[in-house]
Design a protein that fits this description.
heterodimer, A: 470 residues, 19 strands, 32% helix, globular, B: 208 residues, alpha/beta, four-stranded parallel β-sheet, 14% strand, binds iron/sulfur cluster
Chain lengths: 470, 208
């Protein structure tokens, strides 16, 4: 038998049935639920007199809608409040563990799954959210689904799922000083384009990926969807096992060791082949940011706004022209000359403890520029607590950053944290779509370090440019 | 979902590439707990512009949307599909689509027609010149046609999905026919459980 990729191994291990002429049915180990994409699914269950098949494989949290104000401030928006209440009611009715606003385990769904240790190697994990790909950092097959599929998984704990194509993205060499996981994934998305990964599950490999922490691997897998891929994967290794050991969702002692032995099998066989292979040289990477309105519009932070003429394809060119217009930028302008209004450090891409540590190291070197509002939104209460134990909150606050309660916040602007029309942000999130952070808002995606440096300078900046006094 | 055999009617030439789901339905609309009424939110940021194609009288009542490459990339929000259908669209024709959007469409019976860019351009030009042009998407024969010009193209449609569209089958109902397979998978191979991980108040027991 020919060798199999990691993806194929997980897929095969979860096949429940492969009926003639129908899509294969895949078993789902863990279903994560949040308030936005679930109410209509629960309604569907009630309508059809169905129940949740496995509440013990379902976990819910409130994240997209929650305000990041102090917890004693009630949710002001009545429609948001109604949606949060609906989640409370649905979880109570169907017997699902829920972390509501203010709960010690509450946070962005893709932050809490890993930190609670419930996202584990070899699992299939779904959630009504496209950035479910984040959990692939553990060597799990994790992907986003729509509300009908949420209902399907609630009712059956399975999903019809045809086999995806496989892509290997290998990052060779090592990263230069000042370049991190966010830069790696921005480079990958820039290279593949927003449609380059369509139909594929990407396995990230090579020395750079292996050297990344779990937080870094999650950042990379998180943005797989930005290249159009359904999921991203990293084979589990000692870094993964060390991260998981002792977390609430995993067993302890020898039982954990036995589990680790099975996880070690989760690797692509040496003789397996991928449908597509992409190689990226790590040492050639620099700090990146986006200039336009899709996540593949990537340039170095020290670069200039590109010209639409650089795009050969007429569709891409038209898209670039519209993007420049929307972003209020002219070709050729150095990005270090472009002032920002808001800096957002948060989201399931970059709101984990390591992200906050990196940003705080930079924040400690100055004060937020006068023209800038800077927010730090930890990914979860656990992250917030840890950061406070390390004094990071004090560093941020002393430097003029706002220190908020956890949630998705300005990543998608469903809560009150939004850009106003024409405002420009440097954001550690994953999408720079038109209006994503608020109607008419202009989003530039950056790493936590670049976000912090930009907050201090008031214009796009790398930490290393701070030393040069710019 | 309702069975779909044929989608027939006029088309709107959106003429844009990379129309992500945030454009189709902005996030402020995602706070709702209902499944209906999203049509008003469709492309809502663009609809403020009186020149936007959806606002032009010629295209009112169209049932097909023509778009550029990578339509529906981005988030998993099925609300994008609900908004398109609630507005009145029954089919979208474009060169490529976001994966999750395509999947979500299949659950609701929104017909996804993937055609080469040149063919989409042909249709786009045609309906720009003559907005009253009728386009026919035939699910049964997997064909798109313009009866007025005799133009016709096959489009890819997987046979399982075709069957489901034609019959209006509910996916969950189909899956539940395999409930014994699911149960036997669960007893023999499925290991993970959250039982015992959290107490009734959601606190981690191992940290108590
Ligand atoms: S942080 Fe942003 S991308 Fe992540 S789950 Fe929340 S809204 Fe989605």
């Amino acid at each position: 038998m020919a060798g199999r990729t990691l993806y194929d191994k997980i897929y095969d291990a979860h096949l429940v049935a492969a009926p003639e002429g129908e899509s294969a049915l895949l078993y789902i180990d863990l279903h994560l639920v949040h308030e936005v994409t679930s109410p209509q699914a629960f309604d569907g269950l009630r309508l059809n007199h169905r129940t949740v098949r496995r509440p013990d494989r379902t976990l819910a949290t409130a994240d997209h809608n929650v305000p990041t104000d102090p917890l004693d401030v009630p949710v002001a928006d009545p429609i948001s409040r109604r949606q949060l209440e609906a989640l409370d009611e649905n979880c109570a009715e169907f017997g699902i563990t829920l972390f509501p606003r203010g709960h010690e385990n509450q946070g962005i769904v893709h932050v809490i799954g890993p930190e609670l240790g419930v996202s584990q190697p070899g699992m299939t994990i779904v959630c009504g959210d496209s950035h479910t790909s984040t959990h692939g950092a553990f060597g799990a097959l994790a992907f986003g689904i729509g509300t009908s599929e949420v209902e399907h998984v609630l009712a059956t704990q399975t999903l019809p799922q045809s086999r995806a194509k496989t892509m290997a993205v290998t990052v060779e060499g090592s990263l230069p000083e000042g370049v991190g996981a966010k830069d790696v994934v921005l480079a990958i998305v820039g290279r593949l384009g927003t449609g380059g990964g369509a139909g594929y599950v990407i396995e990230y490999r090579g020395p750079v990926i292996e050297s990344l922490s779990m937080e870094g691997r999650m950042t990379v897998c998180n943005m797989s969807i930005e290249a159009g891929a359904r999921a991203g994967l990293v084979a589990p290794d000692e870094t993964t096992f060390a991260y998981l050991r002792g977390r609430p969702g995993v067993p302890s002692g020898e039982e954990f060791d036995r589990l680790v032995d099975t996880w070690r099998e989760l690797r692509t066989d040496p003789d397996a082949t991928f449908d597509r292979e992409v190689v990226i040289e790590g040492s050639a990477l620099v700090p990146y940011m986006t200039w336009g309105t899709n996540p593949a519009h990537v340039v170095p932070v020290t670069g200039v706004v590109p010209s639409p003429d650089q795009f050969e394809d007429p569709t891409e060119r038209a898209n670039a022209e519209r993007a420049l217009d929307y972003m209020g930028l002219s070709a050729g302008v150095p990005l270090s000359d472009v002032p920002v209004d808001v800096v957002f450090i948060g989201s399931c891409t970059n709101s984990r403890i390591e992200d906050l540590r990196s940003a705080a190291r930079v924040a400690a070197r100055g004060r937020v520029a006068e023209n800038v509002r800077a927010l730090v939104v930890p990914g979860s209460h656990r992250v917030k607590k840890q950061a406070e134990a390390e004094g990071l909150d004090v560093i941020f606050k002393d430097a003029g950053f706002e220190w908020r309660e956890p949630g998705c916040s300005m990543c998608l602007g469903m809560n009150p944290d939004q850009l106003t029309p024409g405002q420009r942000s440097a954001s550690t999130s994953n999408r720079n779509f038109e209006g994503r952070q608020g109607r008419g808002g202009r989003t530039h995606l950056v790493s936590p370090e670049v976000a912090a440096a930009t907050a201090l300078v008031g214009r796009f900046a790398t930490p290393s440019s701070l030393e040069e006094g710019r | 979902m309702n069975p779909v055999h044929i989608v027939e009617g006029r088309a709107v030439p959106l003429g844009r590439s990379d129309v992500d789901t945030d454009q189709i339905i902005p996030s402020e609309w995602l706070k709702r707990v209902e499944r209906t009424g999203f049509g008003r939110g469709l492309f809502s940021e663009w609809r403020d512009d009186p020149d936007f194609v959806l606002n032009q009288p010629d295209y009112q009542g169209a049932v097909i949307l023509l778009a550029g490459p990578r339509f529906g990339t981005g988030s998993s929000r099925e609300h994008a599909v609900w908004a398109l259908m609630d507005y009145g669209f029954s089919a979208v024709i474009a060169p490529t689509f976001g994966d999750i959007f395509r999947n979500n469409s299949s659950k609701q019976g929104l017909v996804i027609v993937q055609l080469p860019p040149d063919d989409v351009n042909y249709l786009d030009n045609l309906v720009r010149e003559t907005p009253s042009t009728v386009i026919v998407v035939d699910v049964e024969r997997r064909v798109v046609e313009v009866p007025a010009t005799g133009w016709s193209r096959d489009f890819p449609l997987d046979s399982t999905l075709r069957e489901r569209l034609l019959n209006g089958w509910d996916d969950i109902g189909l899956t539940l026919r395999h409930v014994e397979d699911i149960a036997s998978y669960e007893t023999s191979r499925a290991r993970f459980t959250l039982d015992g991980v959290f107490d009734p108040r959601g606190r981690a027991r191992s940290e108590a």
